[in-house]
Amino acid sequence: MAAQPTRTGARPRHVSIVALPDAAVSTLFGIFDVMSALPRMGLVPAGPSPFEVDIVGEASGPLGLASGVPVDVQRMIKSIERSDVVIVPSLVLGPRGWNTGRYPRLVEWLARMYDEGALLCSACSGLFLLAETGAFDAKDATVHYHYARTFADTFPAVSIHPERPLIISGMREELVSSGASASWHDLVLHLIARFAGSTTAQDVARAFALQWHSDGLRPYIAFEGRTDHGDAAIQSAQQWVSEHFSVPNPVEQMIRRSHLAERTFKRRFASATGLTPIGYVQRLRIEDAKRRLERTDASVDEISWRVGYEDAAFFRRLFKRTTGVAPGAYRKRFRIPDYARPSRP
To answer: Which of 51, 125, 127, 319 has the fewest CB atoms within 10 Å, i.e. the most exposed one?
Structure first.
């Protein structure tokens, strides 16, 4: 059962925001500023703040974050016996991904806080550290879509859904994860609504211009076909279709060029890429359509034809099924608005 909103006179919930060298400054400071500013900005009724927020880490004092910007760690984790909410902010992964076992003291402390009843929350890629506790095993979670494949390879026991901005799991709804980058807004607004009430969450959203990503994150995800499978014939087909996806009958042409039997080609293609050949072509076409919607004034009907669909109605349905929004709504959201364009002589 979800926790009830804080009542006047009730103790503030203690929130620990974990600082470590891999953390992104924007998410850590953004979460801290919003959750600690409620009383200063008059966003809660008279009385104690619903949250007592600390930046915590293995040692107190200055700590350089991933960008080199220092943060002042206010409390050492060994001094914290209990915390109501623990948040791991976005982490910046290197080209080799996440190396498990680097922060054993943090992981042990996170597991202990969880056993004591704390909510474990991740923003974006903060799930990598939390997953080492095992608390998310066999649970649903979300993570930044750019890191989804790496996360799945590193923590196969966790079921991830990178297209979702916020997922709440666990018998007590004690595992909360938010998806890519700015979906930390959803995480913070959820925690405020949960402990301070929905009205306060709405006031905070207005004051900080935060937004719920209610349409999900599918519109933001760029398609990249998997090419690390080692099947040379399928890689050759992928290279060809990446430049010829708009031609008539591209699947038939891929099969003919591969010199494989149709059933063999389709089986190997699906095994290598995780998509059927026609599904792969559709993703390439939709990705090209997204770029055209963002960067040109071409009509939706024209874009449909240019990416390979004569039936514009079918294209519209496929686009919305793939991205979660209609082509016109996608253009409105992602095209640079006129007021932000550089002025011209």
So the answer is: 51
